[in-house]
């Protein structure tokens, strides 16, 4: 039997039509199943969680059948209460599907602690940007008799001397004790 005769035979045409019908029915069934299983056209609006406590945010998301996922809590923001939501993804008002994860960033209880570097025997001009780069604030400068003009002789926090490596909160104000250039 030749190939052309086989392709024009009734058996081949019946099999081809049957295969096309099966593919069409399967495609139709898969599309209907996808519509039902993905809740096609049904969306939930993401509530605004910014500034709310973790408990309140969790309740609001449960009411909308959304899932809460804590992403980060590293950057303290003094404009928000402690342990409140400072960021969320997706943003408030976004349309999402049911059971979607909403990622939130919590405000920690305070600034993180940073080790104070050893700045003794450095000039004030070198020490100031080093502390500012770490997030500290520069306070008062006190001068005492020493041969090194503007040489850092010590650091103070709230009137108490600070040792190198001591942990202080970010944005703490550090006072300098410097040499005035008068000395033997």
TrEMBL record:
PASTA domain location is: 41-108, 110-180
Q: Which key words are in the record?
A: Membrane, Transmembrane, Transmembrane helix
Q: Where does the sequence pass through the membrane?
A: 12-34
Which Pfam families does the protein's record reference? PASTA
What InterPro entries has UniProt attached to this entry?
A: PASTA_dom
The name this protein carries in UniProt is PASTA domain-containing protein
Organism name: Bizionia saleffrena
């Amino acid at each position: 039997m030749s190939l052309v005769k086989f392709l024009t035979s009734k058996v081949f045409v019946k099999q081809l039509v049957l295969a096309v019908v099966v593919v069409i029915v399967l495609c139709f069934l898969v599309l209907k199943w996808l519509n039902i299983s993905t809740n096609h056209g049904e969306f939930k609006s993401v509530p605004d969680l910014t500034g709310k406590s973790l408990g309140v945010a969790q309740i609001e998301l449960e009411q909308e059948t959304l899932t809460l996922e804590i992403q980060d809590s590293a950057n303290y923001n003094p404009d928000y209460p402690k342990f409140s939501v400072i960021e969320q993804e997706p943003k408030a008002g976004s349309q999402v599907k049911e059971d979607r994860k909403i990622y939130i960033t919590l405000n920690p209880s305070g600034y993180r602690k940073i080790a104070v570097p050893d700045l003794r025997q450095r000039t004030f001009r070198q020490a100031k940007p080093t502390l500012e780069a770490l997030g500290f604030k520069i306070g008062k400068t006190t001068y005492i008799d020493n041969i090194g003009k503007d040489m850092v002789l010590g650091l103070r926090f709230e009137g108490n001397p600070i040792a190198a490596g001591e942990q202080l909160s970010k944005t703490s104000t550090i006072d300098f004790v410097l040499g005035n250039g008068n000395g033997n």
